[in-house]
């Protein structure tokens, strides 16, 4: 068997009906091996051979309909990645930090609309960032501490990154957000490398400008390639995860690019998408059993 399709749900959310529907969809065009449960009622593998794993994956999606199950089909040989590269906001954390900052100073609706349009590929990310940052000109740096205290981690973030460290996986944040938020989180989670934008600060006040050049979609693609080269890896050995339009090039380059609870335009474009489970699901699609996870 050369391919594996992994079904993942929230704990207790996967049962024999889902598995049998998936097996029936695969059997029309694939040779199947036995089901291998990675965690009871939560995740399982279906190993198969078929002319097109992408077509097999779509067949299973159609068969499952609106079931709250995420799934990925991929080659078995390269499923365990050696480098995992993540967006930060609405991915590793639930927040959009500029939106949170804007809410604190009473311009939340204005900034949130710009963020939404940028993440849904309706405007150029770099322009949207400059437009949003300009609204904070003159604000005290205390604003950064205020919103930092409200950061909410994805429920699976600590386990995901701790398990990566234990298994020798390189990790990176490559974000269009800001280093004042990304770098402390990377230290907290044990993430190896961070690439982020910077905010100009003078006399303990925000100037309303981001440090140039502003990092956008093309920069993210360049960074993930640089990281792979640094570690001597092929694209097939790399996972990328993000939610916004500025992540699309990075997701397309990686061996597995996961649109994670993504904006509609991104979910419609990316080959792989997670809509239901948290970051722990990314461990299952790499073949890690629940007992292999590192809890913190």
Short recap of the structure:
With 296 residues, the chain is α/β, with parallel strands linked by helices. 38% of the residues lie in helices and 23% in strands.
Q: Notable features of this structure?
A:
alpha/beta, elongated, 38% helix, 23% strand, 6-stranded parallel sheet, 296 residues, 4-stranded antiparallel sheet
**Strand order in the largest sheet:** 7-6-5-10-11-12
Q: Report the sheet-strand fraction.
A: 15-25%
Distance, first to last CA: 35 Å
Q: In percent, how helical is the residue content?
A: 25-40%
Largest sheet: 6 strands, parallel
Order of helices and strands: EHEEHEEHHHHHEHEEEHEHEHEH
- Low-pLDDT stretches are none
The helix-and-strand class reads alpha/beta
Number of helices: 12
Beta strand count? 12
Radius of gyration computed on alpha carbons: 20 Å
